[in-house]
Amino acid sequence: MDAILKQLREILKEGNVEKDLELKTHTYTHLGGKADYFVMPGSYEEVQQVIQFANKNNLPFTMLGNGSNLIIKDGGIRGIVMNLHNFNKVMTDGTKLIAQSGARIIDASRKALEAELTGLEFACGIPGSVGGALFMNAGAYGGEIKDCLESTIVATKDGELLELQAADLDLDYRTSNIPDNGYIVLEATFALKQGDPAGIKAVMDDLTEKRETKQPLEYPSCGSVFKRPPGYFAGKLIQDSELQGKSIGGAEVSTKHAGFIVNKNDATAAEYIALIEFVQKTVKEKFGVQLEREVRIIGEDK
């Protein structure tokens, strides 16, 4: 056993450290190479200790959510990759909802419904984790995280814990200062309101139906690939560029929703990324609009 693996297993429970893990098993696109070391802490203290260990040993450190808005390159990720899947508790306290970062934002919205709280209905179809939702100020159907977030607890890149207010995060359209500051979200508190459970459920049912009928959920994908360009809709521009069904290798522009690229036939990350770039180039040539990626791309080429 190598020294790094041995020391990580001393910090965490043995079952929560793996070497050379295939990251495609942790992404919605089913793409990506291996992580040198993959860790799943069981406590905030373990998170702090892993960060400090990485710093002390000059090891690259990458935070990985549930991989819904992410493409990992075929060469994988060096150093330590941390996943907070174990932090999945969601609870309510009056009109506040407290969710740990590894919980799915969908599950947080369902917990709000159970407690007859309104404000998170928009998130009932967003596939990401709570931490990822804060990271990119996730939104759908007219709502976004900044509308209801009150505060968050984060770990800094030095391993310190901070409690921050929503206003401290510079939340804007699909962005925040979390990546720039190297914060790792550990939990979030949402300020919601008492609502009519039948009305809340009706909204969630309607949004779920829209998602299931309009999005290509039958294939692996990263979700919506591009941000909405001012004055346009990315999907419409791609559709009008006659790119639906265009494929590179196993990656294809969805015939169901042009804003999605699906992994239809064992695509590589390189193929998927090449198709994204082809779509950007084509739309730019036809309409003069530069599509900006919403999806993040990390890792190394093979």
Automatic annotation (TrEMBL):
Q: Which family does it belong to?
A: Belongs to the MurB family.
State the name under which the record lists this protein. Answer: UDP-N-acetylenolpyruvoylglucosamine reductase
Spell out the subcellular localization from the entry. Answer: Cytoplasm
SUPFAM superfamilies from the entry?
A: FAD-binding/transporter-associated domain-like, Uridine diphospho-N-Acetylenolpyruvylglucosamine reductase, MurB, C-terminal domain
Cited InterPro entries: FAD-bd_PCMH (IPR016166), FAD-bd_PCMH-like_sf (IPR036318), FAD-bd_PCMH_sub1 (IPR016167), FAD-bd_PCMH_sub2 (IPR016169), MurB (IPR003170), MurB_C (IPR011601), MurB_C_sf (IPR036635), Oxid_FAD_bind_N (IPR006094)
Which HAMAP family does this UniProt record tie to the protein?
A: MurB (MF_00037)
Pfam families found in the cross-reference section: FAD_binding_4, MurB_C
**Enzyme's top EC category:** oxidoreductase
- Swiss-Prot/TrEMBL keywords: Cell cycle, Cell division, Cell shape, Cell wall biogenesis/degradation, Cytoplasm, FAD, Flavoprotein, NADP, Oxidoreductase, Peptidoglycan synthesis
Q: Name one GO molecular function term.
A: UDP-N-acetylmuramate dehydrogenase activity
What reactions does this protein catalyze? UDP-N-acetyl-alpha-D-muramate + NADP(+) = UDP-N-acetyl-3-O-(1-carboxyvinyl)-alpha-D-glucosamine + NADPH + H(+)
Job of this protein = Cell wall formation.
Q: Which NCBIfam families match?
A: murB, PRK13905.1
Q: Which Gene3D superfamilies match?
A: 3.30.465.10, UDP-N-acetylenolpyruvoylglucosamine reductase, C-terminal domain (3.90.78.10), Uridine Diphospho-n-acetylenolpyruvylglucosamine Reductase, domain 2 (3.30.43.10)
Q: Which Enzyme Commission number(s) are on file for it?
A: 1.3.1.98
Predominant localisation class: cytoplasm
Q: In which pathway does it act?
A: Cell wall biogenesis; peptidoglycan biosynthesis
